[in-house]
Structure formats: structure tokens, C-alpha cells
């Protein structure tokens, strides 16, 4: 069974500037520079104004919820791929996939970057499925919350990036 989710991440940055940051290698390299257990691969297979980010992270045991630790078969390895397309007018679309090693989890969905009166926002719509007998349904909301925390952390980093310019 899978769980559907949606949430919005607000930014105090105009759409054009935010999109430029989202597809800029330097922003992502700076974001991951201090991440000891994470890697990132960047490419632009759809040309200028687009990006593909392939990220992996192995969180320490203290960062893994107890329920998840109980069913892990090996180290938890989080993998996520984001694709952003060029800006079309004031809207940019993207998609994401995520998987975990150590527990059978799959996540996928879409992003839509659009303007707001305060700056911009990214609407996230997706599904998550955890294939673990008995407790998979209890872990799915944790996976959704993790994705939301990661995107909010990225928001704080990118807004800080702009504050330093």
C-alpha cells in the first residue's frame, strides 16, 4: 500500500532568482560541502535552465527513528534524484524519486515552483510506499516528514545563500 502526500515550501525569494539557484551547481556543491555522509552528482541532461541532482546519504543511527532501526536489515542509505526543468513564464516543474537501502521504501512525485505575493513556493505532490510487513504503514508518514524536513532545510540554506550575496 502507498501513502499520498502534498505540502508547500514557501520561499522569500522571487521565482526567477530561486529557479536560477535551484539549477546552479555552485549552490548544491556548497550545500553538500560539509555533509560528511552525503554525496551529490549534478548534471544538466535537459540543457540550460535544468538540472538533475542525484543525492545519497547514510544517516547515523542517532538520526534514524527507533521504529525504523528495529526493521533495518543493514545501514540505512537514502537516495534521492531531483529533476528541474527550465522556467516557463513564472512556473518551473520538476520531479523526484527516492529509495532507501536497508529497508524497502520508494517515493516519487512532482514539484511546481510558482510565484506568491511574498516571493515563491514549491508545491510538492507525491506518494511513498514502505514494503515492511506490519509496520510499513507506520513508517510511511515518517518518510514523508523526512522529505518535508529536507526540503525546508534546503529552503533555509538557499535563503541564506541569497542573504550573503
Sequence of secondary-structure elements: EHHEEHEEEEH
Give the strand order of the largest sheet, numbering strands 1, 2, ... along the chain. 1-7-6-5-4-3-2
User: How much beta, percentage-wise?
Assistant: 35-45%
In total, how many beta strands? 7
Descriptive labels:
4 helices; 165 residues; single chain; 7-stranded antiparallel sheet; alpha+beta
Briefly, what is this?
This protein has four helices and seven strands; from the N terminus they run E-H-H-E-E-H-E-E-E-E-H. It has 165 residues and is of the alpha+beta class.
Description:
- With 165 residues, the protein is an alpha+beta fold.
- 31% of the residues lie in helices and 39% in strands.
- It has 4 helices and 7 strands; from the N terminus they run E-H-H-E-E-H-E-E-E-E-H.
- It has helices at residues 15-22, 25-32, 66-71, 136-164, and strands at 3-11, 38-43, 51-57, 77-84, 92-101, 105-116, 119-130.
- The chain has a 7-stranded antiparallel beta sheet, with helices on one face.
- The longest helix has 29 residues, at 136-164.
- The radius of gyration is 16 Å and the shape is globular.
- It starts with a strand and ends with a helix.
- 24% of the residues are buried.
- The model has no long low-confidence stretch (mean pLDDT 89).
Amino acid at each position: 500500500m502507498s501513502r499520498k502526500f502534498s505540502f508547500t515550501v514557501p520561499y522569500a525569494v522571487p521565482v526567477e532568482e530561486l529557479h536560477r539557484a535551484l539549477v546552479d551547481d555552485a549552490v548544491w556543491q556548497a550545500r553538500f560541502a560539509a555533509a560528511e555522509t552525503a554525496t551529490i552528482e549534478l548534471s544538466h541532461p535537459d540543457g540550460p535552465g535544468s538540472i538533475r541532482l542525484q543525492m545519497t546519504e547514510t544517516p547515523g543511527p542517532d538520526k534514524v527513528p527507533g521504529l525504523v532501526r528495529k526493521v533495518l536489515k543493514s545501514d540505512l542509505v537514502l537516495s534521492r534524484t531531483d529533476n528541474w526543468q527550465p522556467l516557463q513564464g513564472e512556473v518551473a516543474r520538476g520531479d523526484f524519486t527516492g529509495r532507501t537501502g536497508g529497508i524497502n521504501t520508494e517515493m516519487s512525485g512532482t514539484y511546481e515552483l510558482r510565484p506568491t505575493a511574498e516571493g515563491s513556493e514549491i508545491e510538492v505532490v507525491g506518494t511513498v510506499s514502505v514494503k515492511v510487513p506490519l509496520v510499513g504503514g507506520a513508517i510511511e508518514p515518517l518518510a514523508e516528514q523526512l522529505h518535508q524536513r529536507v526540503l525546508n532545510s534546503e529552503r533555509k540554506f538557499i535563503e541564506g545563500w541569497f542573504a550573503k550575496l
